[in-house]
Design a protein that fits this description.
Layout: E1 3-5, E2 18-22, E3 29-34, H1 38-53, H2 61-77, H3 79-90, H4 94-117, E4 122-123, E5 134-142, E6 145-149, H5 157-169, E7 173-176, H6 183-194, E8 202-204, H7 210-218, E9 222-228, H8 231-238, E10 246-250, E11 256-259, H9 265-277, E12 289-293, H10 297-309, H11 329-344, E13 348-351, E14 364-367, H12 374-377, E15 384-390, H13 393-400, E16 405-406, E17 408-412, H14 416-425, E18 430-433, E19 449-450, E20 453-454, H15 459-465, E21 467-475
Parallel strand pairs: 1-3, 6-7, 6-9, 7-8, 9-10, 11-12, 11-17, 12-15, 14-15, 17-18
Antiparallel strand pairs: 2-3, 4-5, 5-21, 10-20, 13-14, 16-19
Helix pairs in contact: 1-7, 2-4, 2-5, 2-6, 3-4, 3-6, 4-5, 5-15, 9-10
Length: 479
């Protein structure tokens, strides 16, 4: 049965145009959503701006904690239903969607904890003639209206990372989920409203087109813009921001992993296979480039191939599926073309390299693709792992650092000095030792560098970004 989602913008009129949501697995129509045009966007902004300017009715810290805790409980209550929706609309296998759901619930609890633990400070006074008889302290206030554009690949947890900190910080938020996976967001925000959050404090929008979305981004009433998606779109939207609007951009990477000569290959293979093939490789820090000494590169490639071939590709809603569909047929075609071009340019195809259906792609391993091939220098965002032979460790590090993308990286070694050397030399915001590049927990900093993003994500850092530090200075002869 096709679901119908009405507007979640108080007092706005629907545009009359519907957004249809299809299953990436079999193309079934899952839902239709009412959308907003320019007038609806203006209504959403007007509502959010009015709420923020009404300081007398800001949500107290006590109430925000209560709402977040209530929401976490409701998410746990509806976890099976929400997980099924996310898996159907996004194509992430059920086994992984369950993990995402558990992380999202924990993330909301973390947002509440941020309210309890973040605090102001005393600024030293009375230390020279100019500062005598004064006391200065800081507190934190919400930055203002938050606009969040989200991505498809983690339709529950990414929304949590954007709207959870905004609610915790006391900011009204307008969230636009990815057009491919909006259902999870709509269902999640309904639970927040049930948890006690007034509807005007969190509005969900689906727009009629890019022009409406860009107008929202450019509006001076937006205080903070949170974007998760492609680099080209993210940097373009950043250029549209009004003066003073702050932002955080989370783009993609071309994650490098280096196996040192002393690496434990047997323990590395399953980690790298999971990190590269998880969610059909549609993860911004997915394992893509693996550098191995020439003497072991083929062994590594064959091991990854065996691990990939043991994975089940198919219906994401089945417990037995390891790899689901890619989000759109066009994305699958793009990946397949990149693989074919690499093979035609000299890469050795170890496994995969073919479609199992118009929606699914076999886990693919390439050995020694050319450095200028798309699979080597662009984010593949598909189930493809490339293995490269190297002679010296510094050569592997230089190749890993050669791109304009820099996000998370990894090095496998049994030697602490090699591990620390790799950590110091790799261009990355985080370096994993003896783990894959896609490791993440929700309280750690998460930042794309260079072309990979702007600002620092992770719930505590996002919470801090969505607040301002406001200082009070008291002058008294009694001080």
């Amino acid at each position: 049965m096709t679901a119908h989602y009405s507007l979640m913008v108080p007092d706005a009129q629907a545009s009359g145009s519907l957004l249809n949501v299809f299953s990436p697995h079999d193309g079934a129509l899952l839902a239709e959503l009412e959308t907003i045009g320019g007038s609806g966007a203006e209504q959403a902004l007007t509502t959010a701006d009015r709420v923020f300017k009404d300081r007398a009715n800001w949500l107290t810290a006590e109430r925000r904690i209560q709402i977040l805790n209530n929401a976490a409980a409701l998410m746990a209550r509806d976890a099976v239903r929400l997980t099924a929706i996310a898996s159907r609309e996004g194509g992430k296998p059920l086994i992984d969607s369950r993990i995402e759901m558990a992380r999202a619930i924990d993330g909301i609890k973390l947002c509440a904890q941020c309210i309890r633990t973040r605090h102001g400070e005393e600024i030293p006074m009375g230390i020279n003639a100019a500062s005598m008889n004064r006391l200065a302290v800081t507190q934190h206030e919400p930055i203002g209206v938050v606009l969040a554009f989200s991505a498809f690949n983690h339709p529950i947890n990414l929304i949590v990372h954007q709207i959870g900190p905004a609610i915790a910080a006391g900011c009204p938020v307008i969230v636009k989920p990815a057009n491919d996976t909006p259902m999870s967001c709509y269902e999640l925000i309904k639970l927040f409203h049930e948890a006690g959050l007034p509807p005007e404090w969190c509005q969900v929008i689906s727009t009629t087109g890019h022009d409406v979305s860009e107008a929202l981004v450019a509006d001076p009433r937006i205080a903070f813009f949170s974007f998760i998606g492609s680099a080209d779109v993210g940097w373009m939207l950043r250029s549209k921001l009004a003066p003073g609007t702050r932002c955080a951009l989370e783009h993609g990477g071309v994650a490098p992993v280096i196996l040192a000569p002393d690496a434990d290959v047997d323990s590395a293979i399953p980690l790298l296979a999971k990190g590269g093939f998880y969610h059909a490789g549609q993860v911004c820090i997915s394992v893509q480039r693996v550098y191995a000494p020439g003497s072991m590169a083929r062994e590594v490639a064959m091991g990854l191939a065996a691990a990939g071939q043991a994975m089940t590709v198919g219906d994401p809603c089945l417990d037995t599926t390891d790899i689901g569909p890619m989000i759109r047929h066009g994305e699958l075609d793009r990946v397949h073309q990149a693989v074919e071009n690499a093979v035609n340019s000299g890469a050795e195809l170890i496994c995969g390299g073919q479609k199992t259906s118009p929606s699914h792609y076999y886990p693919t391993v390439l050995l020694d693709p050319p450095a200028d091939a798309d699979v080597s220098c662009k984010e593949i965002f598909g189930p493809v792992i490339c293995v490269y032979s190297y002679d010296e460790l510094d050569d592997a590090i230089a190749s890993a650092n050669a791109l304009e993308f820099a996000f998370q990286a990894a090095i496998f070694t049994r030697n602490i000095d090699t591990a620390l050397y790799g950590y110091r030399q790799l261009n990355a915001s985080a370096v994993m030792v003896n783990d894959h590049s896609a490791f993440r927990v929700d309280w750690m900093p998460f930042a794309g560098l260079r072309h990979s993003g702007h600002g620092v994500g992770g719930i505590p850092d996002t919470f801090a970004d969505m607040q301002i530090k406001k200082m009070l200075v008291l002058k008294s002869l009694s001080l």
